[in-house]
Amino acid sequence: MALGAKAGQVVAHVVGSNLVRALPGIPVGIAATLLLGRGLGGALFGVRPSDPLTLSAATLLVTVVAIVAVALPARVAARTDPATVTKSD
Q1: Which residues of 68-87 are buried (b: 16+ CB within 10 A; e: fewer)?
Q2: Residue 33: other Cβ atoms inside 10 A
Q3: Cα Rg of the chain (Å, integer)
Q4: What is the 3-state secondary structure (H, E, C) of the chain?
């Protein structure tokens, strides 16, 4: 923002750059679930370890949590006055 970026641009950049780091974990998590789910099949009541609806819902939930976890601090940072942050004592 000190170089002319608008608050919305800062938030979009921070969220986008962090989602690039978070989203590759989703296929890894799905693969681990499919591999380890067989061993935990007895502990799951009424849900198959490879249930596509459950995997989709969990993926969506993790994605939303990742977005919120990044977006809220980014909004606070975007509202901060750059002059107070860059001021040296």
Answers
A1: eebbeebeeebeeeeeeeee
A2: 16
A3: 19
A4: CCCCCCHHHHHHHHHHHHHHHHCCHHHHHHHHHHHHHCCCHHHCCCCCCCCHHHHHHHHHHHHHHHHHHHHHHHHHHHHCCHHHHHCCC
Query: How open is the CA angle 62-30-47, to the nearest 5 degrees?
Result: 90
Would you say 59 and 26 are in contact if contact means Cβ atoms under 8 Å apart? Answer: yes
> Whole-angstrom Cα distance, residue 34 to residue 60?
17
pLDDT of 21 higher than 80: yes
pLDDT in tens, 49-67: 678 888 889 889 988 998 8
Question: By the 8 A CB rule, do 1 and 86 touch?
Answer: no
